[in-house]
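Hi support team,

I'm filing this because I wasn't sure whether my run with pyridoxal-5'-phosphate finished correctly. The job status page said complete, but I'd like someone to confirm that the output block is well-formed before I use it downstream. Pasting the exact inputs I used:
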Amino acid sequence: MSLTQRDHNCIWHPYTQHKTALPPIGIKKGKGALLWDENGKEYIDAIASWWVNPYGHSNPYIADAIYKQLNTLEHVLFGGFTHEPAIELSERLMKLLPSNQSKLFFSDNGSTAVEVAIKTAFQYFFNKGIKKSKIIAFENAFHGDTFGAMAASGISFFTNAFKDSLLEVVRIPVPVSGQEGNSIQAMKEVLQDNEVAAFIFEPLVQGAAGMVMYEPVVLDQLMALCKEHDVLTIADEVMTGFGKTIKIFACDYLQQQPDMMTLSKALTAGTLPMSITSFTQEIFDAFYDDDVNKALFHGHSFTANPVGCAAALAGLDLLQSDEIQESLKRINKRHQEFQLQLNQHPKVKCTRVMGVIFALEIKTAGQQDYYGSLRNQLYEYFISQGVILRPVGATIYILPPYVITDEQLGRVCQTIIGALDKI
Ligand SMILES: *Cc1c(COP(=O)(O)O)cnc(C)c1O
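And here is everything the job wrote out:
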């Protein structure tokens, strides 16, 4: 039996309507930006396996670090115990994070990193005797699928079934070009409500919304307004972190510093599930007390898994290497060339580039559903051509592993042009 058939008998996939979706492709192995399925067909992974894989599949440097750590200490509980990989990773990240970040809290995935941030925001005020239980988030935001993260997310079909059970979120427009004034005005109005604890945002690029981009200056203004009103700011860098914007973090483009940051996805170099929520000293201090009840009672079985930390440390070595730093600039340059080429295309409404992220919107008559028929048609075409791209609605984006070669990236671009010609 094929992997696809065996899978059909026992597995329920994420974000999948099993009645209408294509059967999943059984992948046997990966190397660099390439993957091979059980029939030997080759695919270019042009979206870094959901934005997690910066340094290529089966990277020997990462594999070696993981293997060594597995043979030294695979895991130990993190309540009451600590270990060198977590400490070393924290020390190294502290040098790279905005200078106001001072304590790191570990969990397992992007959604839990966001849960930790939201819970901390509420308890920060609770510990000070202040009642605040609402958050501000952008329209079409995506912060994950657990309850708090889902509440903060604004892509409605992800959350429709649960909308009566979610915490209260006030939504403001994304400050895309032309909308900056509306966004700032909406923020000023929301900040009149003194029950708002925090503002959570994807800095500069909203990934799941279809790589929607906006400028740092307006985010600086929004963050400054929050500071004036004692509202904590949470920069969700789960997608943007570790080089996607060329700088290590999207927050490196800002003048303001967030109170908290969430990191995951590329954190462990595309290998193991792990995430981090980082905090200012001021937030940590609001939990530091003789009263045990003021502590943050949150944790996960695999908190700060040493193997995940070892992978993350090896990932930082690669990210800071000349080779990868050059690659980030090379990919960005290629994207800009592709953008110029497509700006003339009759079927392209607009294009966007930030770091290694490229996006284009197709001109369509009406609104396209996130998982609508245009999207499915495009997805199936790309797969048939051996290119993994997952369009959202009418948006096609590329977010490749940083090790993708020019030749491979060229093939991805050619395939996109082929798809535009076909529709
Ligand atoms: C993917 C993502 C999350 C959720 O991370 P998971 O590891 O999938 O739970 C949260 N925030 C942003 C910005 C993301 O892109």
